[in-house]
Write a structure and sequence with these properties.
The protein has 174 residues and is α/β, with parallel strands linked by helices. It has helices at residues 4-12, 31-37, 55-64, 82-90, 103-114, 119-126, 134-147, 163-168, and strands spanning 21-23, 46-48, 73-75, 98-100, 117-118, 152-155, 158-161.
Length: 174
């Protein structure tokens, strides 16, 4: 598979100007490899990074990348936390191109920045993102409650970060 070292070699290789789609699904590309690779993807229209541990560093790099203005679909990788999700949410020009969202991390980032959030408000605000359904939002909220026990609380129909969740998102609320 392609890891950070191989991604670095790809970055140094000559790229055909006609390349419009890059599928790296199911590899081991991390944030540092993606940072090296992204500057060479200026004409890319479809980028598939699904099942790659890109983490916050990779998500932040995607949010900063210009892609030459032509990208219309990005499938994101794994390991994206609240900081990476916050960067992705801040990149308005990319809102309609994401195919897979780290929705759990985005929920935590949202609450850290904006405070309590109702389920309906979350569904409404995620409507801009490609392929986000009410089921996906509900499933993500349920996963957070199970996976991140103590990070998310629901009181009076509003989701809030618990002290443990606030600690995990400490730098975002500033």
């Amino acid at each position: 598979g392609i890891d950070d070292e191989a991604a670095g070699l790809l970055a140094e290789a000559p790229w055909p100007p006609s390349l419009r789609e890059l599928n790296l699904y199911g590899n081991e590309v991390k944030g540092s490899g993606l940072v090296r690779l992204l500057p060479h993807l200026q004409g890319i229209e479809i980028l598939n990074l699904g099942h790659n541990p890109i983490g916050d560093e990779g998500a932040e790099a995607i949010a900063r990348a210009s892609f030459g203005g032509g990208v219309n679909e990005i499938t994101l990788g794994n390991g994206i936390g609240p900081a990476g999700a916050d960067a992705l949410m801040s990149a308005d020009r990319l809102r309609r191109v994401y195919r897979w969202l780290p929705l759990e991390a985005m929920i935590l980032a949202w609450i850290a920045r904006r405070g309590p959030l109702t389920r309906n408000a979350l569904v409404e605000n995620c409507a801009d993102y490609h392929e986000v359904t009410e089921w996906y939002v509900e499933s993500s909220l349920n996963k957070l409650a199970v996976k991140e026990t103590g990070s998310l609380e629901c009181r009076e129909g509003k989701y809030r970060l618990s002290p443990r969740g606030k600690e995990a998102c400490a730098g975002l609320a500033q």
